[in-house]
Amino acid sequence: MTVTEHRVDPWGGPRQARWQQAVDWPLTIAALVFLVAYSISVIGAVDVSTAALLRIVILVSWGLFPVSYLIDLVLADHAWQWARRHPVNLLFVLLPLLRPLRLLRVLARSSLFQSSAGTAFRARVLVYLAGTAVLVTYIAALAVLEAERSDPNANITSFGDSLWWAAVTITTVGYGDFTPLTIRGRAIATALMLGGVAVLGVLTATLSSWIVQRVADLEEERHRAE
Q1: Measured between alpha carbons, how far is 147 from 180 in angstroms, rounded to an integer?
Q2: What are the sequence ranges of the domains in the chain?
Q3: Burial of 43 (0-12, 13-18, 19+ CB in 10 A)
Q4: From the CB of residue 198, how many other CB atoms can be counted at a distance below 10 Å?
Q5: Biggest alpha carbon distance in the chain?
Q6: Are 92 and 99 in contact (CB under 8 A)?
Q7: Collapsing DSSP states into helix, strand and coil, what is residue 102?
């Protein structure tokens, strides 16, 4: 993909576009490495040396994102305007657990969803939102388990418990059989509930719109055939 094929942001300019195109895959891989290393550090029963190695991997993969963000600002034609219009880029820097969401960009750009038709756009949105919901559930389960297991009174003590809790929380079911007790755990729960309402609401609306569009297309095809 050339720079002309890669969308040039009016505030970022062509130099920034070339940089973002060059680091897109390396940052995606760094996000995956971060997620794998963090998962092992939380779920796995590792020894002291392995835990130290994982912390280094997490720190290095974390550090690539603020460096890339600073280079984005330096290369941007209008740095302040670009930063103001791209808050998600800063969010990936401030919240490392959200960085693996970059992986969904690769799927959203897949050739399977490059058609200009409205149904193709809705399908792309559905895939992106569904993937976001699954990934956020998994990340929240890891974060809550890490926060809660240090509390002696915690009832979320295994990854299975935390994953179940995250699933019922993001869907706003909330059975109440597992509840975070720490301040950090409750903050994660609040963010997950708010995010779950937003993501699932848009997902439901998009799915409904896609079904209506498909029914309309089939009706139109039937009328044409008659």
Answers
A1: 9
A2: 1-99, 110-226
A3: middle
A4: 11
A5: 73
A6: yes
A7: helix
Lookup: tokens for 175 = 């059975």
Q: How many CB atoms sit inside 10 A of residue 143's CB?
A: 23
Fold (CATH) for 110-226: Helix Hairpins (1.10.287)
The Cα 30–Cα 22 span in angstroms is 14
pLDDT of residue 37: 93
Per-residue pLDDT tens over the stretch 164-199: 999 998 887 877 788 899 999 999 999 888 888 887
Name the region of 181 (left: φ>0; alpha: ψ -120 to 50; beta: rest).
alpha
Residues 97 and 86: their CA atoms lie apart, in Å, by 18
- Which residue carries 């799915």 as its tokens? 207
Mean pLDDT, residues 116-145: 78
Query: Exposure of 208 by Cβ count < 10 A (0-12 exposed, 13-18 middle, 19+ buried)?
Result: exposed
Look up residue 222 and give its two tokens: 């039937």
